[in-house]
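Sequence in, structure out.
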Amino acid sequence: MPYFDMRQRPTNNRTYILALVLGVGILYFLFTLTSNSYDPYQLVRKRKADAAAQNPLSPPTSAFRKLRNNDPSGKRRPPPVVHYQLNNLSASANPLAHSEKILILTPLARFYPEYWANLVRLSYPHEHISLGFITPKTKDGDAATAALNDAIKATQSGPEPQRFQSVTILRQDFEMPLTSQDEAERHKMQNQKPRRAAMSQARNSLLFTTMGPSTSWILWLDSDIVETPTDLIQDLTSHDKAIIVPNCFQRFTEEDGTPGVRPYDYNSWQDSTTAKRLASTMGKDDILLEGYQDMPTYRTLMAMLTKGAIREPDNDPRSIMSLDGVGGTALMVKAEVHRDGAMFPPFPFYNLIETEGFAKMASRLGYKSWGLPNYFVYHYNE
């Protein structure tokens, strides 16, 4: 028969103390785990707080957390000296794995709610996305700015995952050459040079004001792009190209009520012998334009190489082609391209201007442009 000794043994105080410490440690761990389970956005908030700027002179792509300007003795604190090591900055095919910062820039003359709704739906973590806008000082620009402010206020005070890292709004300090923003007026051939020169000025002002030392990628997204894949950022960056642009189409309704799609942006192209010969006969202040019958260039237009239907079985969305000119409706650029000096020329640059001139300037700096003929974004239909 088994024997159990029921006599009480002497108590060791060190054993009690060790058990107490262990119990407190377990309770603290369980409390921390429980707290995190009730607050799924705690880690996001901490990362945002760690990245927040603490001085008005800090880059605008960082969220700003205002601190007291004076120390306890009453003396005003001097601005900090901050060191940035850009050699450690990456722009890779997997930006999410490296927490790479994306700067989305939009020249905005009209505000479309569909544009903003599409922007908020982007699946790339918004804590790594900064936004920048520039609006004209016109009546339409005032209305667009007011609507934009309302949308920003609603998003930035809404659910934590939808909030962006920072938002910057600029107002143009120059007059727009066109008073009307109607699509027919914007696309008149005689309006192209002054209109696109002004667009270049706006893009450059926005770029050089908002690009910070932590920016890895810049997505130029026009304010009338109302439909894109939610994984737009991940899809474009996955090709790891310095400059890459999707195909921009427009949805419309046929006369019989059938829905259809049609090419919209003709500025993404491969050059032709005819276009080069035409440019050689032009003056230094003249520009080549694409998509006009009065100026046939016979370039290979990316917009004309596909039917524009996302679910066509023979259309591989990762199919890629080299380009000599790019459009700016949804243009992804590694920030180093802009840091090296490639901007949007508001003047004829090799008889090219704005985004097409940018592609030429980037090429002169050693950067190649690429296009995705079967990957689509869609322009608003007026």
